């Protein structure tokens, strides 16, 4: 089984999360993955980057405890607030609901969303270290 290692201490915010994803998954590509959850999900389907098709893959996320706050409530709030600047592109009502849930402690953080996306790929085993 192919093993790919994310180094959590390299992740300080959402842009550095994608820099780490690009380091791990896109090293042999001439282009980089966009800072985008949909792009991350597409990457995990395989076919480009380090994952070739639906092959079994183990992702080891070292220092995952350091990544959790870096992709936590504040990063998520900034991410969602930034989307509010583009009401022509993003669903403002849905984003307001997400922000409200975050403020009430019931919303998902960016970290939790990433874990959910990874978990949706049955060929990927995630090891939090």
Main attributes of the structure:
129 residues; alpha/beta; Barnase, Chain D; 2 domains; 47% helix
Number of beta-strand segments: 3
* Termini gap: 18 Å
Compute the number of helices: 6
- What is the 3D form? globular
Question: CATH class of the largest domain, please?
Answer: Alpha Beta
Q: H/E order of the elements?
A: EHHEHHHHE
Average pLDDT, rounded to a whole number, is 97
Helix content: 40-55%
Percentage of β-strand residues: 5-15%
Biggest pleated sheet: 3 strands, parallel
Number of domains: 2
The named CATH superfamily of the largest domain = Barstar-like
At CATH level 3, the topology of the largest domain is Barnase, Chain D
Q: Going across the major beta sheet, what is the strand order?
A: 1-2-3
Question: How do the helices and strands line up, and which of them pair or pack?
Answer:
Layout: E1 2-7, H1 14-25, H2 37-45, E2 57-62, H3 64-70, H4 73-83, H5 92-103, H6 110-119, E3 124-128
Parallel strand pairs: 1-2, 2-3
Helix pairs in contact: 2-6, 4-5
What does this 3D model show about the protein?
This protein has a three-stranded parallel beta sheet with strand order 1-2-3, with helices on one face. With 129 residues, the chain is α/β, with parallel strands linked by helices. The radius of gyration is 15 Å and the shape is globular. The mean pLDDT is 97. The protein is built from six helices and three strands. Helix 2 packs parallel to helix 6 (110-119). It folds into two domains: 2-70 and 110-128, Barstar-like (Barnase, Chain D, 2-Layer Sandwich); 73-108, no CATH class.
